[in-house]
Write a structure and sequence with these properties.
This protein has 217 residues and is mainly α. The protein is built from seven helices and no strands. Helix 3 runs parallel beside helix 6 and helix 5 runs antiparallel to helix 6.
Length: 217
């Protein structure tokens, strides 16, 4: 007789009240088996907790084992892929920072007379440095904003295409997780690396003597 469905029931499989399980264990396995658990199902909030939790289970004095290690292997694979993608992203951002620095070196060379005029009318080295770094930060803000908008737009297209595909068990509503700290962090990385790329050109521009800058054609 079906009397209801519990929210704590297993998504796939059969869920039986604990009292029936104890009675059956006592009847078929003996009284001692009725008071012990042969296995338990643990649900973790975060996939990154699978590895530490497995290590905690195997440590003394528990000496427990995981019946199905597929989840642990899958979590390890995801962590490795995540670190690889992170390293690739850092390399890409570093190369972009070098390119930004090269572009600013070219701009400083082309704007020597402009810098010389600003120094001649009273601009200090700190003022010149702040101008160059401010321009680099502005490029970082614009580039980071465009990147975030493009990333969100592409994610919407991917989710839309996935929604039209055939359904499968546990199919997520979205394949992306846009947390506010991720968006702010991406924008911050863009600004920091742009400013880092413009630091040496700004330092060179600030140290340029006004007479030498004005003498350039």
């Amino acid at each position: 007789m079906l009397i209801g469905v519990s929210r704590k029931a297993m998504p796939v499989g059969m869920t039986i009240p604990m009292r029936y399980v104890k009675d059956w264990n006592g009847e078929f396995m003996g009284a001692e088996a009725a008071g012990h658990y042969s296995s338990i199902v643990v649900t973790l909030k975060d996939k990154d907790d699978v590895g530490p939790f497995a290590a905690w289970l195997r440590a003394e004095p528990r000496n427990l084992r995981i019946e199905d290690s597929l989840g642990e292997q899958f979590a390890t694979a995801i962590s490795i892929v995540t670190w690889i993608l992170l390293l690739i992203s850092i390399v890409i951002v570093t190369i972009s920072s070098i390119n930004i620095g090269h572009s600013f070196f070219m701009q400083v060379s082309e704007r020597q007379r402009e810098i010389g005029v600003m120094r001649a009318i009273g601009a200090t080295r700190a003022d010149i440095r702040r101008i160059i770094l401010g321009e680099a930060a502005l490029i970082g803000v614009l580039g980071g904003t465009v990147g975030i908008v493009l990333a969100y737009g592409i994610s919407q297209l991917v989710d839309f295409a996935a929604s039209k595909a055939r359904d499968f068990p546990f199919k997520p509503e979205t394949y992306f997780d846009f947390q506010w700290w991720i968006l702010i962090g991406g924008l911050g990385f863009s600004i920091v690396f742009c400013v880092a790329g413009g630091y040496l050109p700004a330092r060179r521009a600030a140290r340029m003597p006004p007479a030498q800058a004005l003498a350039q054609n």
